[in-house]
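HUMAN: Mind making up another protein with tokenized structure?

ASSISTANT:
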Amino acid sequence: MSDTVTISTLDNQGQFTAYAAKPAGEAKAAIVVIQEIFGVNAGIRHKCDKLAAEGYLAIAPDLFWRLEPGVQLDHDIKEEFDKALSMMDQFDQDAGIRDIQATINYARDAVGGAKVGCVGYCLGGRLAFMAAARTDVDASVGYYGVGIDGLLGEKDAIANPVMLHIPTNDGYVPATAQSAMHDGLGDHAKVTLHDYEGLNHGFASEFGKRRDEEGAKLADSRTAAFFAEHLG
């Protein structure tokens, strides 16, 4: 079952919506699903629905609400892709992290104080890493997070488990950035890194041309096992 819920900002000066997918029975935990630059579109909602089928309350906040509430864009349509890039340039990531914390708070209350994880894609993968360092999320997963090599100074603030999925042919995360991630995080007790040889950015997208079926299934199986271990 899915619904649209309303969440108050941490300072109670604003509100934003989120897509919430609920399991058939009692949720064993909650997972915040962090959007790409394309908003809470059909692919992100489908990821929530899949997590709900696994027994989680899955909530995807509309992080672009300050720019255009409810925006939904398609990577495979050039005009919409260009708009997504423009919106990313305007997006306040620090405000986004505060909204993620507000969503974590909402989700934790909704599951009666049970654990809350997060999983993000592209921009959301970066935000999932930031959330691991800046929020009280219990476990974080990032798929093809951009610019994480520039955030390595925050790694000592990571207290809970993190998993990062890194496609080696990522057009937005060059080899030098990938090497920096391995050098900076490879020996971190809380961080697990998985490389996907020959795959490109967006390989785990639910819909569209970017998806690699084998790679997506492998990454998602690792994510499922990670959450089962750390949110149980």
